[in-house]
């Protein structure tokens, strides 16, 4: 009856009742069906969490529907695809973002009200997917949203860690870490693909053989682990397209240690099989420090190998000739973490597809592009040669061959300049002979991207100076951006309505340039009233959250001043705390009439310290010690409150950012490659107090430096200031606040001693002393501006209006055109 596949599909489609319906009644029915058949609870008795699960599954059905259609369409059109490889993705929650992007938020809200539930309450039930450390990982998540929204034929590939970034709990002001077993209660947003799996091989030996008269190396691996796909649909906004984020989990392979089974060691065979799973167990919680760990290398290779097998299989479904590969495939490597993929592509093309080396290399050079996020040469990843040779012997050999050819080429340009050759070599000689993963990427990639203009400049003139001189055309600037869908539409619905109302359109949600239209109304009193109300409601929500978590009551009239990001010396949370101590000290020394002129502040700090990073942990403790003193001092009252928000993550950011007045970005100039938190604050109309570092420089260009509070040494002044070293003491004010900490004014004198030493006798590498006076001036300017609420509101509106450039939509369009050579492929409705 169904000789024709299409007829069969159409009959089935008819039986399914066509597409899923999105009216309120159909949604209610679907939710209840999921309560009964997915969650297996009675429809007469289920709690908020079960309601969330059912709701999430009904949303997931709608995502899957679009995702199928999108992939069918991509398959039919066979456009060039971009494959985005990243070891980290910080997705946060999915529910609200999904229903907004699907365009059925109102219908769902209505359906839930009818069932006696509240959408927002259920959304709070969802835990964060925290498969990343910070900016780099959240950037990857924002870029996936833009890729889907702009209809690009894209795939994301990464690792499905069992444990995401640790949870931070604070005990007596000290950070403790707890594992984040985020899959405990199930994950409705992923689809397990038991049939999509690939073996990934490790260890073993190399053997020489003659194949078709040619000598070649055969890798005989010693271990095989299975990579199983988990697919996460990513819906675009205002389009039917939904793309895929495919994350790999490690499972024991059937071939894993077969020997033990046959020798009868049944129990040990099973125990050793389980070891395979450790590869995707846990996310490394360290950003920017590399320890050359075997597990980390195995994670990198594991996800890269599985992804490349998947990509090549998809290519081979439709093509026979690898000459076409660069026309169909672009591979983006997110920092150097996935750069072992370069050696893996060479291995697959040469050893498995039997291409000539030079042909294979030509293909590799045409498909790869890389984005570097590090600023310092020390931040670049290196893998000890012994380690790589043991885990991936064939890859080490391939890297040596790549390096040999690179050196031959360099000699043609630089002759016998051995210093230069050794700096550019992929192999670093030294106490521990290592592979420089960045140099491997630079040798191969056709494009090397920096994440802000200042950052690209640093790459060109310092970090990769030699490479820039040789291949200037490879270096490109792709200033980071964030998605306005999550950072305005999802997290600040009142601001979203205000923008749409004043612009007379919702089109800015897809075309954020339109947001500049707000400039025209920056002085309009009606807009000011709406804007201030919006801010106050968001502050109220944040104040409630603060009180629940920390029992500190804060005044809504105070300026909410926020610094939330990973704790790092270079990000200078310590400068912020010392500034708070200065403010406290001033208030303590005021008489009542002076106090009336003080602008009340709530200083909010949040962020995680890497578990082994002692200095960062001390900074967290100092923050709590200062908070204890200040918040309990009756002389101070509402004039100053200090709050540390524990367990900072994406969903906390969604709550905190809309409720802030001022945000701080204090990195020592030249240390923050870009910074993306500042862009989220900017979109939400929070004023920025920042150093001229990373993207802040470009923000100042967009909104006007007069609409933010810039301070501190400039990027090109920093090296000379450091040269001056210890002869450069901070101001008297600086000495005074450091002395207060040293003298035990906040307790824990011995514990904080090293923090004080670092910024005084220790050379003050991050220039806190030098920048302190200028920091206090910027803070005073912020106070003055806040007193004039009309002026402040105008600056706030101009911040949002000037945030258009910092949308990840712009960044992704630049990548598509300048690096990847891909075109949109829009699935018809
Ligand atoms: O300046 C940020 C930048 O905004 C930079 O520090 C960060 O990437 C952001 C997005 O471009 C970053 N993360 C890492 N390196 N740079 C990193 C390194 C190792 C592991 C995890 C993250």
Task: Write a compact overview of the structure shown.
The protein has 34 helices and 24 strands. With 829 residues, the chain is of the alpha/beta class. Helix 10 packs across helix 12.
In the sheet with the most strands, the strands line up as 7-10-11-4-1-12-13-17-18
**Which ligands appear in the coordinates?**
ligand 73E
How many individual helices? Answer: 34
Strand fraction: 15-25%
Describe the global form. Answer: globular
- Low-confidence spans: pLDDT under 50, at least 5 residues? none
Helix fraction, binned, reads 40-55%
Radius of gyration: 28 Å
* Mean pLDDT metric: 96
- Structural class call reads alpha/beta
What's the β-strand tally?
Answer: 24
Main beta-sheet strand count, sense and barrel state = 9 strands, mixed
Amino-to-carboxy terminus distance: 30 Å
Function: Allosteric enzyme that catalyzes the rate-limiting step in glycogen catabolism, the phosphorolytic cleavage of glycogen to produce glucose-1-phosphate, and plays a central role in maintaining cellular and organismal glucose homeostasis.
Catalytic activity: [(1->4)-alpha-D-glucosyl](n) + phosphate = [(1->4)-alpha-D-glucosyl](n-1) + alpha-D-glucose 1-phosphate
Protein name: Alpha-1,4 glucan phosphorylase
EC number: 2.4.1.1
């Amino acid at each position: 009856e169904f000789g024709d596949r299409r007829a069969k599909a159409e009959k089935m489609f008819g039986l399914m009742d066509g597409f899923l319906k999105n009216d309120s009644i159909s949604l209610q029915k679907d939710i209840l069906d999921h309560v009964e058949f997915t969650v297996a609870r009675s429809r007469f008795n289920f709690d908020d969490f079960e309601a969330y699960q059912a709701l999430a599954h009904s949303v997931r059905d709608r995502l899957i529907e679009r995702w199928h259609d999108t992939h069918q369409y991509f398959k039919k059109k066979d456009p060039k695809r971009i494959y985005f490889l990243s070891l980290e993705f910080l997705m946060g929650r999915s529910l609200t973002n999904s229903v907004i992007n699907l365009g059925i938020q109102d219908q769902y809200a209505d359906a839930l009200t009818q069932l006696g539930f509240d959408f927002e309450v259920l959304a709070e039930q969802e835990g964060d997917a925290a498969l990343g450390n910070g900016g780099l990982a959240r950037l990857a998540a924002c870029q996936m949203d833009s890729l889907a929204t702009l209809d690009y034929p894209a795939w994301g590939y990464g690792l499905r860690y069992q444990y995401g970034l640790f949870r931070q709990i604070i005990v007596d002001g000290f950070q403790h870490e707890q594992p984040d077993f985020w899959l405990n209660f199930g994950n409705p947003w992923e689809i397990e693909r038991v049939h999509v799996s690939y073996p990934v091989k490790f260890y073993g030996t190399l053997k020489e053989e003659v194949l078709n008269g040619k000598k070649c190396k055969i890798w005989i691996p010693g271990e095989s682990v299975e990579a199983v796909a988990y697919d996460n649909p990513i819906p675009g906004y205002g389009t039917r397209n939904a793309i895929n984020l495919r994350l790999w989990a490690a499972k024991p392979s059937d071939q894993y240690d077969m020997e033990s089974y046959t020798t009868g060691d049944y129990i040990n065979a099973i125990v050793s099989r389980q070891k395979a799973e450790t590869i995707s167990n846990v996310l490394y919680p360290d950003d920017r420090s590399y320890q050359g760990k075997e597990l980390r290398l195995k994670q990198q290779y594991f996800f890269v190998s599985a992804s490349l097998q998947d990509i090549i299989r998809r290519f081979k479904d439709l093509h026979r000739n690898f000459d076409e590969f660069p026309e169909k495939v672009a591979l983006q490597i997110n920092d150097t973490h996935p750069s072992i993929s370069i050696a893996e592509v060479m291995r697959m093309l040469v050893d498995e597809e039997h291409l000539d080396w030079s042909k294979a290399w030509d293909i590799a050079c045409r498909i790869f592009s890389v984005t570097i996020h590090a600023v310092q040469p020390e931040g670049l990843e290196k893998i000890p040669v012994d380690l790589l040779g043991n885990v991936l012997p064939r890859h080490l050999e391939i890297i040596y061959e790549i390096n040999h050819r690179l050196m031959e080429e360099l000699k043609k340009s630089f002759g016998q300049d051995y210093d230069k050759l050794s700096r550019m070599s992929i192999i670093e000689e030294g106490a521990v002979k290592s592979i420089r993963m960045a140099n491997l990427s630079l040798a191969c990639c056709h494009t090397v991207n920096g994440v802000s203009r200042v950052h690209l400049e640093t790459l060109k003139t310092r970090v990769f100076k030699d490479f820039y001189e040789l291949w200037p055309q490879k270096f490109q600037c792709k200033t980071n951006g964030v998605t306005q869908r999550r950072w305005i539409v999802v997290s600040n619905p009142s601001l979203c309505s205000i923008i749409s109302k004043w612009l007379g359109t919702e089109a800015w949600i897809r075309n954020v340039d339109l947001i500049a239209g707000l400039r025209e109304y920056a002085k309009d009193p009606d807009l000011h009233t709406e804007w201030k109300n919006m801010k106050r409601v968001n502050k109220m929500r944040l104040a409630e959250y603060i009180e629940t978590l920390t029992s500190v009551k804060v005044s809504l009239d105070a300026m909410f001043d926020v610094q939330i990001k990973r704790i790092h010396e270079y990000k200078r949370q310590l400068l912020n705390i010392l500034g708070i101590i200065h403010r406290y000290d001033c208030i303590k020394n005021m008489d009542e009439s002076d106090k009336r002129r003080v602008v009340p502040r709530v200083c909010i700090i949040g962020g995680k310290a890497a578990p082994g990073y002692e200095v960062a942990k001390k900074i967290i403790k100092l923050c709590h010690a200062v908070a204890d003193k200040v918040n309990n001092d009756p002389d101070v009252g509402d004039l100053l409150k200090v709050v540390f928000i524990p367990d900072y993550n994406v969903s906390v950011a969604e709550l905190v950012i809309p409720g802030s007045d001022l945000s701080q970005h204090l990195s020592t100039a030249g240390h923050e490659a870009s910074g993306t938190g500042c862009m989220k604050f900017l979109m939400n109309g929070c004023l920025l107090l920042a150093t001229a570092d990373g993207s802040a420089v470009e923000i100042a260009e967009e909104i006007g430096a007069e609409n933010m509070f810039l301070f501190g040494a400039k990027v090109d002044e920093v090296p000379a200031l450091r040269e001056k070293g210890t002869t450069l003491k901070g101001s008297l004010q600086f000495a005074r606040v450091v002395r207060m900490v040293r003298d035990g004014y906040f307790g824990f004198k011995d514990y904080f001693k090293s923090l004080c030493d670092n910024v005084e006798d220790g050379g003050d590498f991050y220039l806190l002393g030098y920048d302190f006076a200028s920091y206090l001036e910027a803070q005073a300017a912020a106070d003055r501006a806040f007193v004039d609420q009309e002026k402040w509101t105008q600056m706030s509106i101009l911040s949002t209006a000037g945030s258009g450039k910092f949308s990840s939509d712009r960044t992704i369009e630049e990548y598509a055109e300048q690096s990847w050579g891909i075109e949109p492929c829009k699935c018809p409705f």
